[in-house]
Amino acid sequence: MEVDPPPGWAADVETFVSPDRSIPEASRADASRAVVRLLRDGAISFLDLLRGMESALVTTEDARRARGVLLLAESVAGYASGAPDGADDASRSPRPLPASAANLLSQYFTSKLDDFAVVRAALLGCAAMLRARVSVSPEEGTNPGSVPHADPGAMTTTTNPKTTPAVTRLAALDMADRFFDAVHVPSLVQADRQRSYELLIALLSHAGAADEPDAVGPPLGTSTPSEQLECVVAACDGEKDPRCVLLVCELFQALPRAFCGAEGDDARALSKLDAHRAAFAAAAETLYDVVAAYFPVSFRPPPGDVVRVTHEQLAATLRGAMCASSAYAPWAVPHVLESVDGSKPGLVVDDALAALAACGSAFGRRAMAPHMRATWGALRRVLLNPPQGGEDLNAEGVARWATRMFAAEWATGGGGPGRVSLVDLALEDSCLKDAAAALSPSGVSEDGEENENAEKSGGGCCGGSGHDHDHDHDHGGGGGGCGNARPGGGATEGAAASASEVTKRGHALVAGAGRVLGAVAASGVAAASAAIARGLTPLLDAAGLGPTGDVERVKPGVAPLLLVLAMPTISGALDGSIFGGGEEETGTGTIGGAQGVLGACGPRLAGLFAAAAAKTIKGAGALTRDDGVEYVEDEEEAFVDASDGAILGIAGLRALTAFPTGHGLSSGDGAITAMRALVDAATRPDDPPPAFASSAANDEETTAYLAYVGDDVRRRAGEALGAAAASTRDPDMAAAAITHALPPLMKLCEECAGGAAARALAAAARVAAVSSAARKVATPILCAFATRPRDAAAFDAESWRALVDALAGTSDTASTTSTPGMLQRAATDAEGASPEEDAAAAALATTFLSPRAPAAPAGPEDASASASASDDGVVRLVRAAVAACAVETQEPIVAAAIEIVLAARERREEDGAFKAAAAALSATRPTTRVPSCVDAVRALVAVAVDDASSEDDATAASHAASALMHKHGGAADSALGPDSGVGAAKAAGAFAALRSPRGVRVVGGVLRALAARNDATAPALAAELASSLASEDRELAAGAAKALGAALSPSGGGPGVAKTFHGVEKPLFRQKLFSTTLPSILTPLRAGAADLAHRPARLSALVHLAAHAPTPAVLQRGDAVVPLLAEAMRALADRETPFADKDALASAITLTASFLSDERARDVLHAHADEHGGGIIDALCALGTASAAGRARRRTKPDERFAAGDPTIMSAVVRETALEALLAAVALPFSAVYPQRKAVMKAATAALDDPKRRVRMAAGRCREVWRKLDPKCAY
């Protein structure tokens, strides 16, 4: 029996089909979803829907009829799809249509293709029907036109999952005939064309029913296959909209599969498609022309694009259509190759190379074989002349594409008769012969002039008439053409100039050959071997490079070209040997991995790169200079390119030492040559200034430049040595680096003084930083150097500083910007230090803790400064050495240090032993037993807060106390007990000393040490400091505020609490300390004037905490912080109070700027802008003009002190930061900014007279931006 339709659904139908334009589209969409829901739930049937919509479907009103058909089409699509209601029905699977309704709906939508007014809806309905399925279960269709009531959830599954297409093949044929007869696709609007292409795709993918075994080809109508293809082509003709082009490309990807069958189809099925395949083959060129019209893709999304079609999306889809059938190959490959041209834009070439690779992959070796030479010709063009001046594609990108194609299976040629591979074509190309001519000694005479026969041969570096010019030059006569040297001048000058000309003329040819060889070599092991053996080796022979890389026979100007040739080749060969697998098939058979990639060429390259690293190859600078550069004399040229050859040589040696086992420097001589060259480069002193640097100013500038260049070369060489020593691809190379590089470095360290030893130590540190094996060899030796008696003639201040840096690192925290020391590496090594390292580190620490410790050398320039630096070196060495020791080794050292610390009160003068002992205690491991730890903490705190102690002793004592409390407390059985030594610190007067910077450092360090490991005493200590902010003693309150900030500071607690020295930092401890302490500060501040006297202290604490807290944590509390910013800045700028602090003031301004510029906090600041924006801007104006105010005050009150070092608003950093914050303040709402425009303009104008240039520049930027708010402003 039929079920009565639920009341009210007719209203949904009326809402959707009504032509009233005032009805929102959202309401129509809701009505459509409601109808679909009723259909899926079985509340109504499709026959019910048709009857209920009859008036809308047969009306003569076009708009209403179109909407009626559209509702029916959307109902079919929603019913058959998985999620018509969005999230509520997202879990539902596609559901079969009722069988009886399917046939009726198919006929109805097909009939409506003739009705132009409803064609869009009809196209949607036809496509939905072609995609829909009907069930073949016996239960389906028992109640024609309706679906029995059932649980909606149960309808998502079926006991019989067998389904068949909802549209029969006959119905699909009728639908296609009607479509091609009634619909002229090119004349439709974009949305209708889009529906048309979707319908064609659905027809091509229509599978047909199981009871139609005789069906042949796609149901594109009853016409012949050739006519069907003609109809498809006509429907797609002239399409330009990018959304529709995507569908056209998708349609043409499906077309070959429908007409020719898919890979894997059985022979019987394929035999039925003979007529279709013949028709497709006959029309292949026409079909390809349809999609070829869109290549290369010129579409770029316009600004504010709402279509959301990207260039990459179009290009990728078009490539799929162009490569959809191997029948397209005769036209597709030549068409694509036309765009592989370096003169075209980079994006066009990139698309063309991607399309070429796609063609090869899709068409296969057989179809690509006739086009192999043309393919290489196109690749050759872009490799030798890559696109210039664009970011879309450069020479490196072209080489990567070429490598992919060299490595592709289709590019191997197959080895058949007449078939060649891309690799063979590249290695036999004339560009290598041209490069050989440019490198050949026969082309250059002994004095640098080009031989006549070389010019006539036509194989030289470049073209040119070679005639002499009549005009004279300032330095030695006329300049010849491209083929002649410059006559006149001296023989030496002429040879040097001609050598430079040879380098410049041959550069393009040799660089192109290098790119070709590099691209070939990167495609695999076999190709790399071929590139070296058949490509690079003959070119090295042509240049006259000796068997061991000696460059004596290489003519002037040729050696730089060898570097240009060898570097890309070796880099490509390295990539090929690492990522290319084992032996590979090429066009000439299997070449290969048995003899390695470099083979006998390895030692030659090692010698060449070693000569470059030694700066014996001159003229490399000519490769990067303009043709019009004239050289005054040889010294100037040598100065300009002094480092170019060395950098290329070091890079080449690093590449040679990075090859996997069996593919690199197989002979011992080549590896030894490379290691010695790198050692020499890593320890070479700076070049002396050239003779042309005559004036004092020029000499200083030149010396600074040469020092920078020398440091850069030494750094590169040291890193190359480290990479070789740490090599995991070739253990033999790593062993060679340690065997042949470390001993010379250690010998230099032992025998030399000053710069030589310092350079050797820096190189050794770089090697040890990445190679644990090298570190284990070098550390004991250097520790022994550090403890030997000082001889000023053999161990000066410079080499001492280098030794400290090598062992203890250039920074205590071993940050990513510093080179970690060997002892630091040993301390953090997961495997621990070796026994030799452990013993050497213990001996070093013990030596410097003893009364007879050797004195560190001091420099002659400033005795006090040098002594302080030397003592600092001892402290760093002892700290790093103790950290590297094992627990058992640390304990006697720690006991000795404790004795020194406990005897500190008896000391009457400063000595290095106390600082060394404090450093030793700060580097202990958490499991090390520390005797008398409580007494030690008490003694250390006493020294740290004692005004009689030196600043260095106080700092060392504070850091040591923090480290002990960080590592040895928190438990009843720990050395400091459950209170972690807080009681001992208080007893020693830590809190009482908060009035001084030393007390702030101690208390802040203690809180940092405890909070970092989530100690239970940390919250109580933080609360005690927060309560001290209400103290009547303003000095004490100011100290408490600064101590809270010091606890969050990265340097708080000293290096002993860092991970490098076995400290522990719990995740998010700063966020936790900030969030737990801030409420106790903010709550009294919200009281307003009730606690006016203590507000400056709490505002100071707020800024100090926020200055070091993580930015997200501060921005999260923006609602509470922003209203206090202006008042906080005024409090920190008040020189009459102890809260004045220029560093904290700069932090407050930076915090304000963060709220102004950070997207995460802008909304918070805008919410408070009307109320507090004016106050913030006024405070920033006052701070930005502090210098001008200070000068005026000095004129009126000359007796007052205005020292630049005072913690006042006179800091240039504060003024600059305030002006930058004002610049960011223009992002505030207009209502808050506009009233302040004159005040800001006045302040910025006054700041233009600031004595500091950077402040004046900030004022100018601020003034220009704010002036736009009021162009008529007088300021």
Write up this protein.
Its main location: nucleus. This protein has about 1300 residues and is mainly alpha-helical. The chain contains 58 helices and 4 strands. Among the domains are: about 225-325, no CATH class; about 335-410, no CATH class; about 420-440 and about 500-580 and about 595-625 and about 635-665, no CATH class; about 890-1075, no CATH class; about 1110-1190 and about 1210-1270. Helices cover about 60% and strands about 0% of the residues. A hairpin with a 2-residue loop joins strand 3 and strand 4 (about 590). Helix 26 packs parallel to helix 29, helix 36 (about 835-850) runs parallel beside helix 38 (about 885-900) and helix 51 packs parallel to helix 55 (about 1210-1225). The longest helix is centred in the middle third of the chain and has 31 residues, at about 490-520.
